[in-house]
Design a protein that fits this description.
The structure is a single chain. By secondary structure, this protein is an alpha/beta fold. It has one domain. Strand 1, helix 1 and strand 2 form a beta-alpha-beta unit. The chain is flat, with a radius of gyration of 23 Å. The two termini are about 35 Å apart.
């Protein structure tokens, strides 16, 4: 396994049933983390409107900290469970939707290039000899 320095990436999944009460501190933390190898997915459950969570998503307007620093990249995705609870595949799609662009955007900003595609022989299965792996002692298999 080849490990490229700086190629690690993390996804934080937060499930909440309430609104944020410390919006400024949360925005500051997101702005501070926006240059880190991180995506934050927030799933809102319950009857709340989650208007502040939608604001954190940053799709409509880039987040700005109390000191005036702008988020370097969008790292937050908010999904309302209530809106998608009856459609599991769509819920999964929405939860994961922004992560590929967030991941590749981070790697590009750090000049981390993908590893080359591994070379696999066209006769790979024949080389493994999978048909022999099912033989049993005394005959019978294969």
């Amino acid at each position: 396994r080849i490990r490229v320095p700086g190629s690690g990436y993390y996804v934080l999944l937060m499930i909440t049933d309430g609104e944020i009460t410390d919006m400024d501190a949360t925005v500051n933390a997101i702005v501070d983390a926006s240059d880190k190898p991180l995506s934050i997915v927030i799933v809102g459950v319950g009857p709340e409107s989650f208007s502040k969570m939608k604001e954190l998503d940053g799709d409509d307007q880039a987040l700005t900290s109390a000191s005036g620093r702008r988020v370097q990249r969008d790292i937050v995705q908010f999904v309302s469970f209530r809106d998608l609870k009856n459609n599991g595949p769509l819920l999964a799609k929405e939860v994961l939707y922004e992560i590929p662009d967030q991941l590749t955007g981070y790697m590009k900003s750090r000049n981390v290039k993908p590893l080359p595609k591994p070379k696999v022989s066209s006769n790979w299965f024949g080389e493994v000899g999978h048909s022999d792996s099912f033989r049993t002692p005394g005959g019978g298999g294969g």
